[in-house]
Amino acid sequence: MQGLPTGTVTFLFTDIEGSTRLLQQLGDSYADVLDHHRTIVREVVARLGGQEFGTEGDAFFLVFASASAAVAAAAEIQRWLAKSPAADGTPVRIRVGIHTGEGRLRDGDYVGIDLHRVARIAGAGHGGQILLSETTAALVRGQLPEGTTLRDLGSYALKDLKEREHLFQLDIEGLPADFPPIRSAGPTVGNLPAQLTSFVGRQRELEQCRQLLAETRLLTLTGPGGTGKTRLALQVAAATRDEFSGGAWFVALAPVRDPELVPSTIAETLGLKETQGSRPPLELVIGHLHDKEALLVLDNFEQIIPAGPVVTDLLNATPGVKVIVTSRAPLRLYGEREFPVPPLGLPDPRHLPDLDTLSHYEAVALFIERARSVKPDFAVTNENAPAVAEICARLDGLPLAIELAAAMIRIFPPQTMLARLGDRLALLAGGSRDLPARQQTLRQAIAWSTDLLSEPEQRLFARFAVFRGGADIDTVEAVCGPADALGIDVLEGLDSLTEKSLLTVSEEGERGPRFAMLETIRDFAKERLEESGEADQIRRRHAGVFVTLAEEAEQHLLGREGKGWLDRLELDHDNIRAALDWACEGDHTTIALRITGAVWRFWQIRGHLPEAAMRVDRALSLPAAPEDAPVRLKAFEAAGGIAYWRSDVEKTQVLYEQALELAERIGDKALIANALYNLSFPYAQRGENDVARTYMERSVSLFEEVGDAAGLSRARWGLGNTAFVEGKYAEARQHLESALVEARRAGDEFQAAWTLYMLGSAAVRDGSTSEARDWLAEALKLFTAAGDLSGIVFCLETFAERAAAMRDYARAVVLEAAAETVRASTGMELRDWTQQSGEREERVLSQEEEALARSRGEAMTVEEAIDYALE
After folding, report:
1. Number of C-beta neighbours around residue 114 at 10 A
2. Which 3 state secondary structure label does DSSP give 743?
3. Cis (ω within 30 of 0) for the bond into 630?
4. Backbone phi, then psi, for 62, in 5-degree steps?
5. When you count CB atoms within 10 A of the terminal residue's CB, does the N or C end of the chain come out lower?
6. CA–CA distance, 11 with 61 (Å, rounded to integer)
7. DSSP state of 503
8. How far apart are CA 841 and CA 844, in angstroms?
9. Phi/psi zone of residue 27: left (φ > 0), alpha (ψ -120 to 50 degrees), beta?
10. Residue 839 has what pLDDT?
């Protein structure tokens, strides 16, 4: 054959998987399938510069001068075959082997060991799989075809080759990437159970575990029930068993309760028989393995942790043995490397990607795979994608939970299943009958762990269920302690529950480590709390702690330390929600009113307005006693403020009038002054400036009388707003500058930021755009530092107005669109009613220019919009 490349070349071999079966199945029409396959292969190879130097039945022998061209051809062939079955619909699955070596020709044909090597590599694979030798992988690693990645499969003994071959798999985006184990030479030693379902996801974890196993002799996979520790351990063992001439052995320890029985269980697994007078089981095992290279998978060690020294003795006496342990707690042995098995990768249900990207998230991919095993036509669609993503998220990405849920697809579509997930443990109750009992239902998987706890640990586990979103040590002690009543030191108990994978712990912050439960485990713990008879007492303690937190935070939210306290409330927002739910469901009116009155500013600043409106309305609907008047007043003010920010003027006025009535009934001048200040705003929004000014002036007088600097600053700011709306900019600036002095004197960063914002707005209207920029920039920086989304929106909008005043219309549109995008995320509907008096410049942008500018603004993150405004 003329023109074949010589020297260093890359060989590519392909053949059709199951060709004999297909021939028997299809008869004469198999020829059409073969022609279809050949057409695709030859078209791709010719286009990418390869050459065909032989065929044999359904096999192709190809050569390329470039390794990257060979790999690109293989990827394209697989893509074409995947999307274009033969004319009769028969899918064509080929296995591909690629190796780079010496191309020596004799009598017009290639000869040499490299030709045999590529044939053996191709023969080790499966239909749809592309295998590369280590040489080829090294050459193409930096220039892989788009949409492909390399996966290290490890080294294997291949037929007729003396040395083991290190193989790599080319993964192609959108095509299957999980295949059965490599077909290696020689008999398989060991007893690894065959897996009847595919191994989905976990590629990163698989590679990490393989690397750890290469570096240590004892690898312990830890995690709560249902995380897939056993399956990952088996996959690691299957991927590495060819490295162990003595075999890979799976030792099932779940039925074992007596640590003394561990050696005999290992011996039985290895086929070693104990006879009368024989050596002890551990000596039998050591004698059998002392000169072997073997891998032991000791599955489910948590209930026999005291047997840990058996593992140490075994490893010390058998230098060629390695051990993988699965356990809900580490063994705490010298040389042990722990690998906490994380949940599967999850999408954010609030920001779903496109369907193709969504299906690549591990949790979703597993749901789809298992759902199709019971309903072959199941697919993720635009209609059910949000439900599928939410199901996976609600199940914490736990493989067992997702598999159990997916099995329900034969009964419920995803949307219906999601609606029933309120009782996760009840819904996920029907696992495969051939699994161990502990793996058949989610409840049994969790119960398996908790049954191993001491009584004090079980008490702490149940009490911890009261926390939604976790808690730090001090908070746990306040709610779940004290130690003498709990029966265990709280920190010691938290450490034990974390070690047993029933709690997770995040990195230490200002308040130390934070502990949390996966929601599926928390469901189980809540059942135990209810059974304990302590539920109401613990929930009351929990609510008391978070009432205290809310009221302490309230004192700081508008000051220099506001950002830290806002962040603290954000961190514990779920706990505040839980406390409010308990208070409202049990008619604990005072607690509900105290919380809502204290945290409403947090809700407004951090963009939780729709939820805030629902929660404060619910609190105000509870039966109230006369002694609740002060906290009810604060709740009315909170409800009025929330209605104001949602631009419901009529509701704002009604609520603020009720607050003023209560304040006058209580007779406190500071409360009356604040109520008058609030009530001026709905009138100002409607343009009734005389009424608004009257209320505000009365408020100023009372604040001056009681010496309330912060209140006086707010009231002067309100007078500045009123003058601004009336077009009296000089008067407005006089009030605002006075308000700024008062705000800074009081350390009120919140009020200072809003005053700076209004000064900037006045400067824009007055034509002082340079001065406006300084005011607005300072205000925006303060809002950004506090994470105040409301203030950020208003500043962006006024920066847009300034840009329009300077005839930079494209910039104005970008800022307007960015502000509107941020606004939409907060639920804030209030517009800057002070700007209604301004005349909007006529825009001179073309439709195309305006659309382009708007698109740019809408695509900006909050941070990008802030940077753009400050440029």
Report:
1. 21
2. helix
3. no
4. -125, 155
5. C
6. 7
7. S
8. 9
9. left
10. 41
- Closest among 249, 263, 271, 262 to 324, alpha carbons compared: 249
- CB atoms near residue 254 (< 10 Å): 18
CB-based contact 671:633 (threshold 8 Å): yes
Nearest of 747, 770, 754, 675 to residue 721 by alpha carbon: 754
438-441, Cβ contacts within 8 angstroms, sequence gap of 24 or more: 438/225, 438/254, 438/300, 439/225, 439/226, 439/400, 441/404
> Residues in the chain with pLDDT < 70?
1-2, 85-90, 185-188, 194-199, 274-278, 422-442, 445, 448, 508-509, 827, 831-843
Q: Report how far apart the first and last C-alpha atoms of the chain are (Å, whole number).
A: 67
DSSP secondary structure of 225-239: TTS-HHHHHHHHHHH
**Which distant-in-sequence residues (6+ apart) come within 8 Å of 862 by Cβ?**
789, 792, 822
The rounded Cα 596 to chain-centroid distance in angstroms is: 29
- C-alpha to C-alpha distance for 605 and 790, rounded to whole angstroms: 6
Phi-psi region of 202 (alpha: psi -120 to 50; beta: other; left: phi over 0): left
Residue 293 CB coordination number (10 Å): 15
Please count the residues of the chain: 871
Pairing of strands 165-172, 148-156: antiparallel
User: If you search the block for the tokens 């075999």, which residue do you land on?
Assistant: 247
Residues 6+ apart with CB under 8 A from 129: 95, 96, 169, 179
Q: Are 136 and 98 in contact (CB under 8 A)?
A: yes
Residue type, 162: K
Beta strands 94-106 and 336-340 are: unpaired
Pairing of strands 165-172, 130-133: antiparallel
Long-range contacts of 263-272 (CB under 8 A, 24+ apart): 263/310, 266/296, 266/298, 266/314, 269/191
The pLDDT assigned to 433 comes to 47
Instruction: Give the separation between CA 775 and CA 772, rounded to whole angstroms.
Output: 5
Rounded to whole angstroms, the Cα distance separating 719 from 704 reads 14
Instruction: Quote the pLDDT of residue 188.
Output: 59
Q: Which residues contact 223 (CB under 8 A, 6 or more apart)?
A: 229, 328, 340, 341, 342, 501
Angstrom distances, CA of residue 846 to CA of 164, 193, 819, 843, 850:
67, 68, 21, 9, 6
The C-alpha angle 494, 499, 501, rounded to 5 degrees, equals 95
Identity of the amino acid at 479 = V
Q: How far is CA 740 from the centre of its chain?
A: 43
Closest by Cα among 84, 174, 170, 188 to 122? 170
φ, ψ (nearest 5 deg) of residue 236: -65, -45
Q: Which amino acid appears at position 558 of this protein?
A: L
Alpha carbon 608 to chain centroid distance?
A: 21
The three-state secondary structure class of 534 is coil
Q: What is the pLDDT of residue 13?
A: 95
Q: Beta strand 218-222 with 321-327: parallel, antiparallel or unpaired?
A: parallel
Residue 768 tokens, joined: 């002082």
Sheet architecture: strand order including 471-472? 471-472, 512-516, 504-509
- DSSP SS3 for 105: strand
Instruction: Report the alpha-carbon distance of residue 114 to residue 124 in Å, rounded.
Output: 15
CA gap 518, 99 in Å, rounded: 46
> pLDDT value at position 458?
93
Angular region, 49: left φ>0, alpha ψ -120 to 50, beta rest: left
Tokens of 8: 């260093």
Are the CB atoms for 592 and 581 separated by under 8 Å?
A: no
Which amino acid makes up residue 235? Answer: Q
CB contact set of 193 (below 8 Å; sequence gap of 6+): 234, 250
* Pair 616, 639: CB distance under 8 Å: yes
| CA pair distance 1, 62, nearest whole angstrom | 13
> pTM, whole model, 2 decimals?
0.65
